[in-house]
Structures are given as C-alpha cells and as structure tokens.
C-alpha cells in the first residue's frame, strides 16, 4: 500500500464517524496523505499517524509504528491519559481561532443570562407578567476566568468588551494583557482569582494539577449566590461538592457543558435539577475545514520530517 511519498493515517473514535463529520476523505486533493477508518486498514504496520476523538481503550493496539496522534479538538487529555499510547508518539491538536470565538459567545451568553435573570424573565413571560428587574452596571459583576489559553483569552476579551470586572487565573503573566483585567499567576492563581467572584468560568486544560479543581474549597471562596460556568472537562468538577454548594445557596446555579461521563446518563440527577443549565458539550467545536487542513498539514510535516507545528507540550499537559 505504501509509496515513498505517501503517508498513512487512521481515524480513531469511539463516539464519532470522524471521516464524514470532518470531511477527512482527502482523495485526489491530497494523494500524499491517506486517512483510513480502522476497517479499511490492510497494512496496520504502515500507519504512521492517527486523527482522534475519544479513542477506545484498545484503539492504538493494531498500529505498532505510530509516530503522531492528533486530537481533532482542542483538548488532548484523552490522548495524554491514554494507556495505549507510547511516550514516543507525538501529540498534536487542532488550533482553531473560530473555536475560541464560539467559546466566548457561549460564556458571555451564560454570564448575561445569570446577570440579567433571564430564567426569571422566562417564568414571567409564561405568566404574562411584566416585571422589570433592577439593572446594575456590568462592572458590578466580578467574573473570574480559570485559564488563559486560546479559549480563556477569547472569553476574557469578550467579557471585558461587555464591561464586566474580569479576573483571570493563569500559569504565567500574559504577553498581551487586557487593560482593566486583573491577572493572577503562579501556584495560588486560582484561589486569588476566585475570591468574591460572582461568576466563575472554567476553561482549564485537564491535567493532574487541575483535576477536581471545582470543589467545595473553591466554591466557598466565591461571593454567596455565585454562578459556575463549566466548559473545561467533567473531571474538573467534584459533583457532590457542586450539589452541596447549591443546597447551601453558596452557588445559585451552574451551567454545565462537560461531564465525567458523556453522554450524561439519563438517570443522572443533574438532568432534573432546575438550578442547572445543561448543554451536551456544545460550548464550541472545531470547524471541519480547519480540522481537515490541520490534519493534512501535520501529516505532511510528519512525512517530510519537519517539526510538528501543532504539537503540544506533553510535560505541561496542553
Ligand atoms: C472540545 O472539548 C475540544 O477539546 O475541542
């Protein structure tokens, strides 16, 4: 199956048909890159890269000569934590600026929904009740963003543009800080940034350091009656601590887009809790044409021996 100028890859996902969803059938447009579904692979030893979204536990077993595994999304936690991937396999991810824009729109929508009490407005509408509520200045609302990667930074920009008081927890000082935004860096950045927050938005990557970061200790540092927007990964949230914070009123509610188990099981209590706003991991997505272009780019870099420009820092975890 191989020729010197051709590279072979495989599509690995337990939950999606990646080839049709992201139009990853390059055909005549890219004769040098051949991307196959597992059932189309006849010579597994010739597979040099994989494009992945939630690959199954045994997904990598058939491919002994894999050199690169690429996430079709921004998160690489499912690859970095995969027991079946050797350390010598480079990990890459798609970097799509439109994904960050989508994330910013989702986050601002949820903050404004909370700030302007739109749930109450909806109830009022159903009761044909005209009942304006007092309106405060956006700057009266302290909004904390956990993480200042491409997603976090886009959210911070959008929140600042609308006039909220924005606080950010980040690993190191940003190169391009936004006027009026307060940045907290270093080991205590999260605890510093969430103090007295009215809204916390989680965009952190999932690493050993950030797992369970949304816990009782963090909730207790917020202003009473705060709101959580959880758009990181399900494993960031200690679910029992969320329920306890809702019961005590420390949290008024939460927007949850990501879960420890996805799809969220039908019998999960979250579904029936009207203090929660639940969406099915749709806060953002990568655009298919960007995914196709960047998978192609990475495959060609691998084929030519060039540095992988979309690789992640494995030690750092993102
Ligand atoms: C979405 O969760 C992504 O990782 O792109």
Describe the protein's architecture and organization.
By secondary structure, the chain is α/β, with parallel strands linked by helices. The chain has 2 domains: 7-96 and 286-304, Rossmann fold; 99-278, Rossmann fold, CATH 3.40.50. It is 28% helix and 19% strand. It is built from 9 helices and 12 strands. 39% of the residues are buried. The mean pLDDT is 96. Residues 73-75, 286 line the site of glyoxylic acid. Glyoxylic acid (GLV) is lined by residues 73-75, 286.
Give a quick rundown of the structure.
By secondary structure, the chain is of the alpha/beta class. The protein is built from 9 helices and 12 strands.
List keywords for this structure.
19% strand; single chain; Rossmann fold; 318 residues; 9 helices; seven-stranded parallel sheet; binds glyoxylic acid
CATH homologous superfamily identity of the largest domain: NAD(P)-binding Rossmann-like Domain
The overall pLDDT, averaged over residues, is: 96
Sheet with the most strands? 7 strands, parallel
The radius of gyration is 22 Å
Provide the helix percentage: 25-40%
- Beta fraction of the residues? 15-25%
CATH topology of the largest domain: Rossmann fold
Number of strands: 12
Number of helices: 9
> Any guess at the CATH architecture of the largest domain?
3-Layer(aba) Sandwich
Main sheet strand line-up: 8-7-6-9-10-11-12
Poorly predicted spans? none
Distance between the termini: 34 Å
């Amino acid at each position: 199956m191989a020729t010197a100028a051709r590279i072979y890859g495989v599509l690995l996902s337990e939950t999606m048909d990646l080839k049709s969803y992201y139009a990853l059938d390059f055909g005549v447009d890219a004769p040098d890159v051949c991307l196959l579904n597992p059932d189309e692979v006849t010579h597994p030893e010739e597979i040099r890269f994989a494009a992945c979204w939630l690959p199954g536990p045994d997904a990598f077993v058939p491919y002994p000569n894999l050199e690169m595994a690429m996430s079709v999304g921004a998160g690489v936690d499912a690859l970095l934590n995969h027991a079946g991937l050797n350390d010598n396999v480079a990990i890459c991810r798609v970097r799509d600026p439109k994904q960050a824009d989508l994330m910013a729109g989702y986050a601002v929508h949820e903050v404004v929904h909370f700030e302007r009490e739109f749930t109450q407005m909806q109830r009022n509408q159903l009761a044909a009740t005209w009942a304006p509520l007092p309106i405060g200045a956006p700057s009266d609302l302290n909004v904390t963003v956990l993480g200042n990667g491409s997603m976090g930074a886009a959210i911070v920009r959008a929140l600042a543009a609308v006039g909220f008081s924005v606080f950010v927890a980040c690993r190191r000082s940003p190169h391009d800080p936004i006027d009026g935004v307060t940045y907290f860096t270093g080991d205590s950045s999260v605890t510093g940034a969430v103090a007295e927050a009215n809204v916390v938005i989680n965009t952190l990557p999932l690493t050993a350091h950030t797992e369970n970061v949304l816990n009782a200790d963090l909730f207790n540092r917020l202003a009473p009656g705060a709101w959580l927007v959880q758009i990181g990964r399900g494993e960031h949230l200690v679910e029992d601590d969320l329920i306890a914070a809702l019961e005590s009123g420390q949290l008024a509610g939460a927007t949850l887009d990501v879960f420890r188990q996805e799809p969220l099981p039908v019998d999960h209590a979250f579904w029936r809790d009207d203090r929660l706003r639940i969406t099915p991991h749709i806060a953002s997505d990568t655009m298919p044409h960007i995914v196709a272009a960047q998978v192609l780019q990475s495959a060609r870099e691998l084929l030519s021996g060039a540095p992988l420009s979309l690789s992640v820092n494995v030690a750092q975890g993102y």
